[in-house]
Amino acid sequence: MSTASIAPVFSELAVGQGVGSRSITVTRQDLVKYAGASGDFNPIHWNEAFATGVGLPGVIAHGMFTMGAAVQLVTDWAGDPAAVVDFQTRFTKPVLVTDTTGTEEPGAVIEVSGSVGALDADAGTARVDLTVVSAGQKVLMKAQAVVRLA
Amino acid sequence: MTINPDLQGRSYPAAEVYDVGREKIREFARAVKASHPAHYDLEAARALGHSDLVAPPTFAIIVAQRADAQLIEDPESGIDFSRVVHADQRFVHHRPIFAGDRLVAELHVDGVRAMGGGAMITTRSEIFALTGDGADGPGASREAVSTTTSSILVRGEGQ
């Protein structure tokens, strides 16, 4: 079985080159699934009254959901999830997820795009810088994934 | 309640073992909307030269947050979990995490600094895979897998 993409070759890359973009839809159910999968059951991610009670505008996505979903752009580009050797971000704005249960509408949309930010010939690695936006605001800053390439 | 400044420099030794299962990798991959076949299909993972299913790049957060819980639940820490905001996160992978790995995490509190009425706390989990026979024993050998670094902001009253 072959994988979905053809792996990029280090020598053919240039700083500034795009790695693509994707749009991720998020529902309250997605947050419940992430809570279960990760073990992070903080009620700010699934209970409206609790979230507003601690001063948030509503239920927000786990920062780690956003971080984890955003890196798939890099994983698919690299062709192998094991190629991601370093991945970091700052969480700057929450992703507010409205309750659209029972409809086909997403509760939030996260737009992810990436480009090659740096190349390290000695290490054979490329740093991919991600731009991650929801509701017109950058929700992650300094979202950088270092990928080891052949 | 205020954050205990003496937390800085504290370490929590590796506690329970986390067994990485194939279905957990698949469940976590679905939860972060990862579609790469190496998370789901053994043949696809092996075609890339891996011994078993490959965990997504942020999977180690499961193990790291279990380690963090030791600090957050420590009555001496003064941390109110409902006032915790995740500020930043980093994963450095020394090698990928595979299904079948038996992981342990050592937690280090690298930084505590007051911010307004709250505090920013930086923790680091050194995650190892236990290897060899009798892997649970104190003398078991272990292999460095990931270093995760996390900063949490504990909001003070009125923040």
List the helices and strands and how they pair.
The complex is a heterodimer of chains A (150) and B (159).
Chain A: E1 18-26, H1 28-38, H2 48-53, H3 63-70, H4 72-78, E2 84-91, E3 108-120, E4 125-134, E5 137-148
Antiparallel strand pairs in A: 1-3, 2-5, 3-4, 4-5
Chain B: E1 11-12, E2 18-19, H1 22-31, H2 42-47, H3 61-72, E3 84-93, E4 102-115, E5 118-131, E6 141-154
Antiparallel strand pairs in B: 1-4, 2-4, 3-6, 4-5, 5-6
What does this protein structure show overall?
The complex is a heterodimer of chains A (150) and B (159). Chain A has 150 residues and is an alpha+beta fold. Chain A has helices at residues 28-38, 48-53, 63-70, 72-78, and strands spanning 18-26, 84-91, 108-120, 125-134, 137-148. Chain A has 4 helices and 5 strands; from the N terminus they run E-H-H-H-H-E-E-E-E. A 5-stranded antiparallel beta sheet of chain A has the order 1-3-4-5-2. Chain B is built from 3 helices and 6 strands, in the order E-E-H-H-H-E-E-E-E. Chain B has a single domain (5-21, 56-154), classed as Roll (Thiol Ester Dehydrase, Chain A). Chain B is 18% helix and 35% strand. Chain B has 159 residues and is of the alpha+beta class. At the A-B interface, helix 1, helix 3, helix 4 and strand 2 of A face helix 1, helix 2, helix 3 and strand 3 of B. Strand 2 of chain A pairs antiparallel with strand 3 (84-93) of chain B, so a sheet runs across the interface.
